[in-house]
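Hi U.,

Before I forget, here's the chain from the pilot set. I'm dumping it here mostly so it's searchable later in email.
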Amino acid sequence: MINRLALCTYFVLFAALFRMTVSAQQQVPVISGPPSDTLHLTLDSAENIFLRQNLLLLAQRYNVDAQKALVIQAKLYPNPTFNIEHGIYNTETKKFFPLGSDGQTTAGLSQLVMLAGKRNKQIKIAKANAQLSEYELYDLLRTLKFTLRDDFYNIYYLQQSAKAYDDEITSLQKVVDAFEEQKGKGYISLKEAVRIKAQLYSLKSEYKDLLEQISDQQSEMRLVLQVKPVYIDPILNPATLETMTPAKYPLPMLLDSAYTNRTDLLMARANTDISKLNYSYQKALAVPDLTFNLSYDHQGSYIKNYNGAGVAFDLPVFNRNQGNIKSAKAMIALNDATQKSAEATVQEQVYRVLEKTVAADKLYRNIDASFSKDFQRLMHEVLINYQKRNITMLDFLDFYDSYKQNVLQLNNIQYNRMRAFEELNFITGTNFFN
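Structure:
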């Protein structure tokens, strides 16, 4: 028959384990700090901060402005050239800077006139480069936005997983403390106490690794948001994610969106267009430009106060821009092949990511919604049986460990599903799922 001291010991252990199960059903913050050091963010508010403060986006916007300024420059005509010359010293009259009949002055005015449509071709190239810089901005925005949203969901579900560790560690620590109080009195098996401590240390190690993973994601998200070192607490209502389904958008619609909106594909097309414009421009450079000029000579010509007009142009004898033309033509073939490769890649990526999203969504929806609740109710029954000593402490802890693994797996499944939806947004270049 168990004496009173043993009954007290079992009661202490049971109370600690009961608190362990109750705490597993509560939402306790994993990492709590001063309110001023915690940034509570919804996904929309995080994106607003990102658009305002990300320095990479700001730098790329300046690049867009710089390229647009080059369009203005390309539209400008060449300036006319004016020159004037006056004699310094007259050797006959021994005068410096002589004027009138003793001096000699010449003057000229010239204007370059570009032929073969060079100016218009330069304008088109400048506009195409400005458009390319905008595509680069949108592609950077698309990439950083995917990183931000992925970090947001990853941190949220990692925090949910960390709570399972936090609850179990807290409860097991109470059990270990209860064991320590009864140490040496013979009511608790040394083997059982060592087993509990070993599991507690293992959980603490796993918990530390999980917190490191959360910290890494926090650091990446802070860099994207360009905020000071604070702890980011994602705010998410899981119920709003239930309506998301990949079946809402058929493959042809997703492909069409990708072909139209994928900025990396638009960049490939823009590079092909620029190479064609450059080829046309290089051929135009083979045509010599004209320089018209007016001249005046005071008394150095065959008559005094000579006035003349002329025209000058290069003779395309040796240099007809052959190398640049050949290089530009090769770049057309290169960029065209790159564009076709990008189109084929986009098609395969959309198909594969849609397949991945369908599988992730199917796995999530095949999970019995009552499974976790049934597990919690069963845990209560296990507690009662442990109170009656129908099961051992190790059996109970094994069951609780299964509960922890269930929580971790469910959170991982939910995160993988949301990441698949975000990848589909990223691959198609459109926020179908928001």
